[in-house]
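The material for today's practical consists of a large collection of protein records. Backbone structure tokens are a discrete shorthand for how the chain folds in space. An example says more than a description, so a record of this kind follows:
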Amino acid sequence: MKKILDRISARIEEAFEACGYERRYGKAVLSNRPDLCEYQCNGAMAAAKAYKKKPIEIANEVAAFLSGSEKEKSVMFSEINAVMPGFINLRLDGGFLADYLNGMQREENLGLEKPGHKETVIVDYGGANVAKPLHVGHLRSAVIGECIRRMGVFLGYHVIGDVHLGDWGLQMGLIIEELKNRQPDLVYFDEAYKGDYPKEAPFTIEELEDIYPCASVRSKEDEAFKERAQAATLRLQGGYAPYVAIWKHIMRISLEDLKKNYGNLDIRFDLWKGESDAGPYIPWLIKDLKEKGLARESQGALVVDIAQDTDSKELPPCIVQKSDGAALYATTDLGTILEREKLYRPDRYIYIADKRQELHYTQLFRVAKKAGYVKEDTPMDYIGFGTMNGKDGKPFKTRDGGVMRLEHLIADIEEAVYGRIQENRGVQGEKEAIKEAGPLTASEERPEESVPGDSEESVKAGMEMSEEEARKTAKVIGLSALKYGDLSNQAAKDYVFDMERFTSFTGNTGPYILYTIVRIKSILKNYQETGRKEEDARILPDEGASERELMLELTRYNDAMETSFEELAPHKLCQYVYGLANAFNGFYRDNKILAQEDKKRQAGWIRLITLTRDVLLAGIYVLGFDAPERM
């Protein structure tokens, strides 16, 4: 189903062409002055320069043609005005608007176009190191990456999400040497041992999570230890069997823990590959870069120059091999590209990582294309994200100043949401008690608190919610608070993690979006319980400002989803979802849906809010969370 902007533009393009001008000037845009019009065309300004006319003359010609053709074709506009200096202001006809929404409801995927045409897109996100627990620093890459992946799938791309684990670098050598210090008698460290290696790991996940930080600290204080760790890393990368056996133990127990914790965030990867998977490609890679004359020696290391004449600042060469022959991140990332080209032949690459990694990805992309591993016209995009900070403006920490584990953050936010649910249930219970006691006297009257779920059906739901359901609901809402709180911020910017604000049931938050969906579900449930049916009902032309605002917001779904993916901007999808939720709540405020006496109008409203629910559900699914049945 064509986006509404495309349909409007097609009509205006016909008018420009009919008036003797090029069609390309007929592009419509959303009005930046909604008080004056809903859509506008600014093409007369550009056409005026090409045709040596005043913009208003061209605008008047096109507007006059449109007004005449509206009588001959199905009506699209209720108002067409040419205004100085040459704008064409447009207001959609209510019947056209209603027909468009009815079409969305009939169409598969709510009329969402699928421009992807099954093109293959690799999304590289996650990026956690094995042998370490996920912490808050891993949140943004995972949440942003998952949203990008889901958007791509929704738009018809063949999206492959890869966790791309850090499992082949110096941290492996550090773990091996620390393990050797602690358990020197293990067979892995016996040079004379020739038998099979144990199937069970010589450590638990808890022990492993202690080994790495201890080794990291030791390497900063003990240069000899660091050198042994570097040598162990090189031996592992060279295929030394005892160290490969240790590495396999690390991978097995780390993956189990990582999958559990990513699962708690409802994040799924298509591939659980790591740097190690690039290992077999690295010897050929180094040889090829040398043979092509791209790699040169610099202070014992191998580097590839990536500077271009158009650069505004000096860019250093990319190091592809250290002086001791060891691989670096750039080496394994290039090897990973070779593997991806061999196995998947991607039409596009998308990488999500901390914005401080910008130089690394600039070097990576340039070497990949300079060497011919990726076609010059293949898009390679990098989303560099900012830091999640505490209220003090510094990177988010635990109360004692340590790095917070992600599972602890999730538990804390779920507990905060559970507390809010309990508070709301308490307020609702007080309101129910007041209701049963009868009206207050004049001296007792006081303003009633405005709380989420203040409709009669939600009060009843709140009172009936069991402890188990409250906990499950808190888990769903907590995930929305965490993900929406992150995604609603522009990726490149730092943001403050504010538990109180993110878990609020009002304002631009995940819980507010969910509350809106739950409210719609409640209305639909009550409507169904009356026995009324609306199978043959249609969304009708609007009769009020808030109804029209809701209808206009719904028509923008297709464009919002596509634009958010094109610009790799999840925050724009959040903006759309929030705007739609606000539009519905405005409509709900102004219209008594279940008390509407005009049954045809009521059935049309039911259709309208059903479409609203479906669009909101699609939006939050792409953002990475679900809605409960009640709150």
Q: What stands out?
A: Residues 120-146+281-387 form a domain with the Rossmann fold fold (CATH 3.40.50.620). The first strand starts at residue 28 and ends at 30. Residues 430-460 have pLDDT under 50 and may be disordered.
